[in-house]
Every structure is written in C-alpha cells, then in structure tokens.
Amino acid sequence: MEAIRAFHHVIDDPLKYLEGVSLRKKAVGYCCSYTPEEVIHAAGLHPFRLFGLSPDTGVADGHLQSYCCSLVRGVLSDVLTGRLDTLSGAVFPHTCDTIQRLSDIWRMNTKFPFFADVVLPVKLDTPSAREYFEEVLAKFRADLEKGFGVSVTDASLKGSIKLYNLIRTSLRKIFELRSASPGLISGAELNKVAMGAMILERETAASMLADLADELGRLPAPSPAGRKRVMLVGSLCSQPDIHAILEKAGADAVWDDLCTGSRYFDGLVREDGDPLTAIAERYCSRIICPAKHSSLTARGENLLKSVDTHRVEGVVFLMLKFCDPHAFDYPYLKGFLDGRGVPSTLLEIEGQLPPEGQLLTRFETFVQML
C-alpha cells in the first residue's frame, strides 16, 4: 500500500526527515508518551519522538551507569555525536529514574536553546493530582512561550487537541482492524505506522493515518486459520523485526500494552472547556505505565480486559533490559494472567535483537505451547 510505504520511508531514516522539518519549523525532542505534545504543537513547534536508534552507544557509556537501558544510551549517544543537532531543544517528563537522570546529563552536556523538565505527579487518582497536573502544564506553556518567543493561545491549544484526537482515533481504528483481521497489515508495518505517527509532522500524520484507516476498512478481511493471537506488553517496541519473527513462528500480535502502541493513543481529550484542564484529564485517565499509579490493580485489570476484548491466547512480555519499572511490574501482571490461565513468556531485549534463529526458536516454542 502506498500509505504504508510513506511511513516506511520516514522510519527508515527519521533523522533525515527531521532535517527537512527543521527547515520549516523548530523541532523539540521527547522520549516518553507522557510528554504533553499538544502544548508543544500549539506553540508552532514539531514534537519529535526519540527512539535511541544509534547502533553504537559507546560514546554514552562515560556518562551513564552500566545498568541504564538501551533507550537512554541510544538517545544520549545520538545527541553527543551530533546526530540530533537539528533539534531546537528537548522535553523530559519525569517518569522513570533513568529518564530523569538522562534529563540532567542532557542539560549539562548540550547547548540547545531550549530545555524543559515536566515534573508530573506519580499518583494520578486524586483531585489534587489533576490540579497539580494543570499547574505543571501551565508552567510548561509559559516555558515554551519564553523559550521560543511565541504565544500559546487557548485557540491554538484547542486546534492541537482536535488534531491529536484525529490521530489517536485513526490509530485506534487501524489497530482494531488488525485485531479483527491480522492479515490486513503485518505487525512490522503496524509498528512502523505507530512510530511514524510520532515522527511525522502531525498534520501530515493525521491525513495519512485517516487515509490508511479508510483503505484498510475497505479491504476484504482475510481469515488465516491455525495462527495464534498474542499480545505484546512492555515499555516500547522500536524493532519491527520482532513482529516478523513472531509471525514466522505462527502467531500474530493482535494488540499491545506499549508506549509505542495502545498507551500512546488511548483516550481522547475533551474539545470543550479549558484546554489545559482537558489535557490533564486525559493524561490522568489514560492507560498508565508502571511509572504512574492510579490503583493497585489498574494495570492488571486493563491487561485482562485487553486479553478478553481481543481474544488473546498468550502474552509476550518485551522487557527492555534494566527497565526497573517494568521489571517490578512483571510478577504482578504475570500473576493476573496465571490466575486467568493465560500463558505468557518473557523476552528481555536491548537496542539490538538476539540472533533471528535464537529468537525464532523461542517464539516457536511458545506458540507450540499455546
């Protein structure tokens, strides 16, 4: 499909795309789905998701402990080697400890014109959390206005909210179409579409995603027999090859709980009332990651809901090595699955995947167990 090929082009060389965008507008990097993108976009800036794709992270090792994840190593390597010089700054929402420390190292070792820490609340299920979230967003809005000499009006915020709602709606439709019929689009293609939506200029992304959703909705739904339906759970998946190898083993990832997947597009922002209040409400009520708290059972209950809704037969935990929040979360989530009798397997990953043969054997074993 032509629409999918366009996403491939962006993902194959995101930094080249960034160079082109930076000729038209200033770009701000971020590496967490809790970044309030609507506020960045409303300032006339381009939010650019950082995936830490640098193949060699050696230059970052002198600044980091040995137990930091490959995402942080890759992002820091990219900036220290000048691969991100076309950015005008970066935003760091405070989620996990490693991202917070990356924020400190970035600030001390770079000279970008803009830098912002967005210190979000951890506990999101109280009225005071939402009030505090609004205050954080108001400060971030003021920081952007001062840092870039712009005015972030309520009208521009509402326009950005509407645009992001379109993006999230289209992404959800595409994911649900694949869940209903995995043969419509491969998992690797879907992964590139989701990542592309975080890199493309958002107006372009909204148009392309809507076109792709319409095109997929008109296609006949293939129904391959004998394939297993699995779900990916973890922090992020920036390696489309995982899907290709999983599909080669006889299974399709029909849904996920990832910040590069369903957690990114979960929940819409109200388009009426105060825009910062509406944005805070969405970020407090969307599916949480392990770095946030809404109740003692929220993530487990959401996992089982997704298993039921998408007829999931098994779960693959993608554990980014040294990701403490997800490592602590794993036994708790596995307990929910075990209680329901849903098989699961744990795959620890870094920036580079294990050899294909090794990974294929592991997936084939799991699929046979299903």
How would you explain this protein's 3D organization?
The protein is α/β, with parallel strands linked by helices and 370 residues long. The chain contains 15 helices and eight strands. The strands form two sheets. A four-stranded parallel sheet has the order 2-1-3-4, with helices on both faces. A four-stranded parallel sheet has the order 6-5-7-8, sandwiched between helices. The relative contact order is 0.13. The model has no long low-confidence stretch (mean pLDDT 93).
Topology:
Blueprint: H1 2-12, H2 14-22, E1 27-30, H3 37-42, E2 46-49, H4 70-80, E3 89-93, H5 97-109, E4 114-118, H6 127-148, H7 154-180, H8 187-197, H9 202-218, E5 228-234, H10 241-248, E6 251-257, H11 262-265, H12 275-285, H13 298-309, E7 314-320, H14 324-340, E8 344-349, H15 356-369
Parallel strand pairs: 1-2, 1-3, 3-4, 5-6, 5-7, 7-8
Helix pairs in contact: 1-8, 4-5, 6-12, 7-9, 10-15, 13-14
